[in-house]
Amino acid sequence: MRYRTLGASGLSVSEISLGSWLTVGVGVEREQATALVDRAFELGINFIDTANVYGRGAAEVLLGELLAGRPRDSYVLATKLYFPMNDVDKGLSAEQVAKQIDASLARLRTDYVDLYQCHRYDTETPLEETMAALTEVVRSGKARHIGFSEWSAPQLEAALAIPGAERFVSSQPQYSILHRAPEREVIPLCARENIAQIVFSPLAQGVLSGKYRAGEKLPEDSRAASKAMGWAMGRFLTDDVLGVVDRLRPIASGCGLTLPQLALAWVLREPNVASAIVGASRPSQLDDNVAASGVTLDAATLAAIDEAVAGLTLDS
């Protein structure tokens, strides 16, 4: 496993990190989740990402139990807030920031998180209020650093311009061979401001695993076939997308890589990316994913990938 620095935080995070959306506490049972976390540590993964809304607290609760026996300085822990936890608890108001950080810490069984992230931008709360509340979270010691997910470049610029506010150290965008929107504005801005990317869906929710083919039945043990985990995959399972995946297969094979390893190595080729979050449901998937750490793709391979995806648009 290789490690990179998370923006201006000074934190060293593994190039491959363990996510928990739709998996831990939701689509993956406790025994399986225990095996996943154990294997992640064995492989050198030290960065774990979750959110309060994953399973409406279930992911944080289970992670808190599974991490309780490990030294707190042996892992970097990130969580998020914004999406509704119930009919009234949602958004990034000062009240919600104060309430949700305490609730997350209780579920995670820790005194602090290393990274507290805005899961989305809150158009209904003044940005100054949100940033002041996040600044207080850091100054109180409940979070070491703050980050955001899926904010636009203008939204980030506005936050950075607020005097005295804590500065973001990370951005968490969707980013993959099939979804490159962050390259246009967010990544260049973040690179200038020493804000690192921790990207989600680098395998396009598993489509870049190569297990799905046009016209074929979904594998029974796959994410797409799971009611708990497959509901958000529709736009990745079109014939156009699966055709691109088929064109990527020989490129991966020619590099001596699996398709997931090629996809993860592609994401990690970007210097501003500190870590790629994987949502594995089995330890064997982690074994395969981690092998992408440290892989360098040459110019010819990168050009072949560009040619394979030419004309595909999934950036909306």
Report on this model:
This protein has helices at residues 30-42, 58-67, 94-108, 127-139, 153-160, 186-192, 239-254, 259-268, 283-290, 299-309; strands at residues 3-5, 12-14, 16-18, 47-49, 76-81, 113-118, 143-148, 168-171, 196-199, 273-278. The chain is built from ten helices and ten strands. With 316 residues, the chain is α/β, with parallel strands linked by helices. The chain has a single domain (3-309), classed as TIM Barrel, CATH 3.20.20.100.
Question: Could you list some keywords that capture this structure?
Answer:
35% helix; 10 helices; 316 residues; 8-stranded parallel beta sheet; alpha/beta; TIM Barrel
Q: Spans of 5+ residues with little confidence (pLDDT < 50)?
A: none
Structural class: alpha/beta
Number of helices: 10
- Please list the strands of the largest sheet in the order they lie side by side: 3-10-9-8-7-6-5-4
**Gap between N and C termini:** 33 Å
* CATH homology-level superfamily: NADP-dependent oxidoreductase domain
In short:
The protein has 316 residues and is an alpha/beta fold.
Topology:
Blueprint: E1 3-5, E2 12-14, E3 16-18, H1 30-42, E4 47-49, H2 58-67, E5 76-81, H3 94-108, E6 113-118, H4 127-139, E7 143-148, H5 153-160, E8 168-171, H6 186-192, E9 196-199, H7 239-254, H8 259-268, E10 273-278, H9 283-290, H10 299-309
